[in-house]
Amino acid sequence: MSTPGEEFWSDRKVAWYRRALARSDYAGKVLGAIAPLLAGCNSVLDVGAGCGALALPLAERVRCVTALEPAPAMAKALREAAGARGLGNIDVIQARWGEARISRHDMVVCAHVGGLIRSGATFLQEASAVARQGVALVRDTGKGADKFFFRELYPRLLGRPYVDGGSYEETLEELAHLGISPTVTPVGYRSDQPFADLEEACDFWMEYLGVEGNGVRTFLRGFLGERLLHDGAGWIAPYDKQAAVIWWRVKGDRV
Length: 255
Hints:
By secondary structure, the protein is an alpha/beta fold.
């Protein structure tokens, strides 16, 4: 499954994503894994920054962050979140990698942008030229819980199997071809998705799967009612994720 393009992200999908991030321990786990590389960094380039999962907490630690994000809805949400948190040190550039002129930064971060960090991608080599001190990547391992029950729902509603975004091992193989031996740290984190009620949950799955109709909604209402968990007055889709944090130094000896 390819990484969603900028046209995928509507304001509503971004709002759902932000609600999941608000209760996730993702940023703490990733920043903890790259702490040795982050020490001494004053500037960070976050490529494919989304709505700020890493850019916002990074901006609270370093002097300046440049967030490169092509999706208009994501870039808008990131600017709004930075303003709400009083972070004036984030420069949001709405563009893909390679479309904007980027100055060198102490560290380059790229998380969950499969198209840039898979085998054959030129980004892995280009990032080292932009970073003064190091590069950090985050990629799913393919382990952990079934993402939003997609392995069950794709065959039943779309008539095809769900294919995940590939393996982090191919990124390691590409780095090996470049002569880079990175530090790899597996991390587990929560990415539970909250909903006000089952009808909103049905809206979520129908938008993500691109399906519609009363029959589909009726099926999803029963399916999700058996799998989601009560969370106070609402519901959550539990999601236990596993990722690999991959980083290396570009100044002096690589580790």
